[in-house]
Design a protein that fits this description.
- The radius of gyration is 16 Å and the shape is globular.
- It contains 5 helices and 11 strands; from the N terminus they run E-E-E-E-H-H-E-H-E-E-H-H-E-E-E-E.
- It has a 4-stranded antiparallel beta sheet with strand order 1-2-3-4, covered by helices on one side. A 4-stranded antiparallel beta sheet has the order 8-9-10-11. A 3-stranded antiparallel beta sheet has the order 5-6-7.
- By secondary structure, the protein is of the alpha+beta class.
- Helix content is 21%, strand content 38%.
Length: 191
């Protein structure tokens, strides 16, 4: 099962065009300009039973659901428990080329890794969901590739002993979070 490449949005890194394609259980969203790529698993039933030709955002909404599952501590493949950590290279260099602090969620049962940016760790936090709701945005309906266009964020490593990562997200108001080495929120404030 496959789905030909189609334009779905603008890239939040460079304003190029994001193109979505689906092949053998994976959705890929690639920027035609800067080369940024997001690969997400998606079961073939989504393509077979739903009209993703007309509604490719369905694949992105499914990926957002997987993000929520992972953030809440369940493996997106086997449903085993996951542990979140800041990737060591982020502690050495503070941020990657896109300005993100790289984090990983790894399943303690099957070992499946899920790499993402630190902002992902707070996406499901009640104050972020409330911030989006106050701005008229339903988080449940945002395709995964559109999150960074809607939610402006900045990330940085504040300390490495103990690990502290600061994430600031802005929609209309600004929220600042401090995460520990397990990506748990240890404090937050709303401006």
């Amino acid at each position: 099962m496959s789905l030909d490449s189609r334009a779905v949005d603008k890239c939040s890194n460079c304003n190029g065009t994001l193109e979505l394609r689906y092949e053998q259980g994976h959705t890929a969203v690639d920027c035609d300009s800067c080369g940024a790529t997001r690969i997400m698993s998606a079961p073939p039933i989504l393509v077979v039973a739903h009209d993703v030709e007309e509604n490719p955002e369905l694949l992105g909404t499914f990926a957002t659901t997987q993000l929520q599952q992972t953030i809440r501590g369940f493996c997106y493949l086997c449903s085993g428990p996951v542990e979140g950590t800041v990737v060591d290279s982020s502690l050495d260099s503070e941020t990657d080329d896109s300005g993100n602090v790289k984090v990983a969620y790894e399943c303690t049962e099957c070992g499946a890794p899920f790499y993402t940016a630190a902002t992902t760790a707070v996406l499901d936090h009640p104050v972020v969901v409330s911030l989006l709701h106050d701005a008229g945005i339903d988080y449940r309906e945002i395709p995964s590739w559109r999150i960074t266009r809607i939610l402006d964020s900045e990330e940085r490593v504040n300390d490495d002993d103990p690990v502290r990562v600061e994430v600031t997200v802005t929609v209309d108001d600004e929220l600042t979070f401090v995460l520990d080495e397990n990506l748990d929120v240890v404090e937050y404030s709303r401006e």
